[in-house]
Amino acid sequence: MNKSELTQKERTLVSNIQRLYFGTMVFNVKNGIPDIETMKMVKEVRFSENQLSQPREVKSDHALKDRFIVFIRYIRSLSDCKVEIEIKNGYPFRLLEQVI
């Protein structure tokens, strides 16, 4: 699956995850669609030399890694809920789902 095959909201979600690199995101999902307008992002900054993240280039189209494919499929399977995603190294690492 390529990034260009995603909906606009899914592409925005993937790009935001890649840009944030380390941190958390919270947003609502309605009928499998991420509600970008409700998104809140918190960047995690680590102060050891090997942990400082550099600004990352976000490509407009590329083949998605398996982690993103599984993540997008899971988001699509949700009905109405709030999710919190932990992001590590520019990938979704953990998802907490709150039913609303």
Model regions low in confidence, pLDDT < 50 over at least 5 residues: none
Order of helices and strands: HEEHEE
Q: Please identify the structural class as seen in this structure.
A: alpha+beta
**What's the helical proportion of residues?**
25-40%
How far apart lie the N and C ends?
Answer: 30 Å
Strand order of the largest sheet: 2-1-3-4
Quaternary assembly: single chain
Shape: globular
Could you walk me through the main structural features you see in this protein, from its secondary elements to its overall organization?
The structure is a single chain. The chain is α+β, with helices and mostly antiparallel strands. The protein has helices at residues 8-20, 66-77, and strands at residues 23-30, 33-43, 81-88, 91-99. Strands 2-1-3-4 form a 4-stranded antiparallel sheet, covered by helices on one side. A hairpin with a 2-residue loop joins strand 3 and strand 4. Helices cover 25% and strands 36% of the residues. It is built from 2 helices and 4 strands. It has one domain.
